[in-house]
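Quick note —
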Amino acid sequence: MLKTQARLESSKLMSWLSPLIAIVLTMLVSSVMFWALDINPATAFKVFIIDPLSDSYNLGELMVKTTPLLLCATGLALCYKANIWNIGAEGQLLVGALVGSYFALQANEQSGYGWLLVTLAAGALAGMLWAAIPTLLHQLFHTNLILTTIMLNYIGLYLLLWGVHGPLIDPDGFGFPESAIFADSVLLPTIMEDGRASISILMAVVFAVGSGIILYRTLPGFQLRVFGSDQPAARYAGYSSKFIVWSVMLSAGALAGFAGVAEVTGPIGQLIPQVSPGYGYAAIIVAYLGRLNPFGIIFAAFFMGTLYMGSDLAQIELGMPTAITGLFQGVLLFFLLACDFLIHYKIVWQPSAGVAQPSSSSAKQGAA
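Predicted structure written out below.
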C-alpha cells in the first residue's frame, strides 16, 4: 500500500528548483497537446516564449500583461507568508478600476496631473476597503477568508458591469458598455513610443522590491514570517495577530486596487468590462512560482506575462483557442503543487497487515 510520510528535513535547493521542474513538466505535457492539434511544438513554443521578446512593441505589451500580475502577486505573497488565504485579488482589482474610473471621468483637459494622483490613490483605497470587508468578517465572526474573498470577487465583477452599463457609460458611445475616453491629464505616461506600456510597470517593480526589503530586512517582516510559520509561538512572543492580519490584507487590497486603476488609466484609457482576463487568479500561481518571495515574483510575473502575450500571438498566428492560457496555468499549478508536496513528503510502500498466524504453543493448547 502506498502511503505518504513527512520528510525529516525539506531540501531548500529543491524548494527553489521546483518551479523550474514544474515549468519543464508543463512544457512536456503541452508538447503532447500541440501534437494532438497538428502543431509543431517547436513552432508553438517559439510563438509563446520567443516572439513576445522579439521587438519593442511586443516587449511593451509584455510589460502591460506583467504589471497587474506583479502587483497582485506581491500583495498575495505577503498574505500567504502570514498563512492568510486571500483569494480576492481579482475583486479588489476590479473595484479599484471602477472607483478609479469614476474619479478619472471627473477630470478634463485643464485638470493638472495632481488629479492623476488623486485617481490612483482612490483606486488603491477602494481595493484596500474591499479587502477590509472579509478581514472584518473574519475578525468578528471567524468567517472563512477563502470563501468570503471569492464571493466578493463576483460582487466586484457585477459592480463593475453595473458601472459600465449604467452611471459610467459613455453618453456618446451608442449604448456600448464602456466609459468615455479619459482625459490626457489622468493617463499614466508611457515609457515607450510605439507601445502602451506605462510607468506603472516601474512602480510595480519598486513596490515588489520594497515589499521584499520589508519582509526580509525589518522587524515587522520578521514578525509576519514567524506568525505564518507558527502562530502560537508568535502570540507567545507578544506579536499582535490582529495587526498582522489587517496589515497584510489591506496591503494586498491596496496593491490589487492600484493594479486595477493603473490598467484603466494606463494601457486601456477607459473603463471596459474586460479590464482583467483573470489577473487576480493568475497572480496566485505567480506568487507560488516566485516562492512567495517578492524578488522571485518579479521574474515569475514576467514569465506569466509572456504566456499571456504568447497566447494572444498564438491565436493570431497559429489559430489556437483562447482557452490555451488557462490550460497552461492549470497544468503549471498542478505540477507546482505536486513538486512542493514531494519536497515535504515522500511516498513509501507499506505492506498491508495480514491475518496473524497462531503460534505453536497456542495451537498445542487448542489441540489439548
